[in-house]
Amino acid sequence: MLSALMSALHVLSLGVGLGAVFARGRALRALVAGDARTLRRVFFADNFWGLSAVLLIATGLTRLFAETDKALDFYLYNGFFWIKMGLFALVFALEIAPMAAFIRWRALLRKGSPIDTGRAALFVRINDAQTAIVVLIPFVAAAMARGLWLLT
After folding, report:
1. What is the per-residue DSSP string for 5-28?
2. What whole-number distance in Å separates Cα of residue 141 and Cα of residue 20?
3. Most buried of the four, 17, 58, 141, 149, by CB within 10 Å?
4. How many whole angstroms separate alpha carbon 86 and alpha carbon 90?
5. Distance between the two ends of the chain, CA-based, in angstroms?
6. pTM score
7. Taking the alpha carbons of 138, 140, 141, 147 in that order, is the dihedral positive or negative?
């Protein structure tokens, strides 16, 4: 039962993440176009993007170390697993700048201070890269789950 629950939550969190990163990108584009009212939409989507990341990490670690689906060695010696982890790490690394900026923007908004959204165009490009990577991850995961090894 734990296996099915963790698998379902893992896949669901990926879907939530894809929807959130897509919505955040749309809101960021509107922000770049000069619609400051979309700032709250950026934050709303960003919250779901963060929730998705937490769920992906929690369910992924549970599946890995509790060996709910496959033995630990299945993952550790599977090249597609490491590609998947590398892609996830890349998404996380790309998230550092937007995450730091959004934390600052939220604090400024609470204080009623002006927010410099000059880097929003950069965040759109980062967001687009993250979206593409998130779309790629299930293909790598499917290859991994079917026992394709790539590395032995």
Report:
1. HHHHHHHHHHHHHHHHHHHHHHHH
2. 20
3. 17
4. 6
5. 31
6. 0.91
7. positive
Residue 32 tokens read as 């770049």
Q: In the numeric block, which tokens belong to residue 68?
A: 């709910």
Contact 150, 75 (CB under 8 A): no
CA atoms within 13 A on the CB side of 15: 6
- Tens digits of residue pLDDT in 78-101: 999 999 999 999 999 999 999 999
Domain residue ranges of the chain, discontinuous segments joined by +: 2-145
Enumerate residue ranges in the chain where pLDDT < 50.
none
Secondary structure string (H, E, C) spanning 83-145: HHHHHHHHHHHHHHHHHHHHHHHHHHHHHCCCCCCCCHHHHHHHHHHHHHHHHHHHHHHHHHH
Both structure tokens of 40? 């709250």
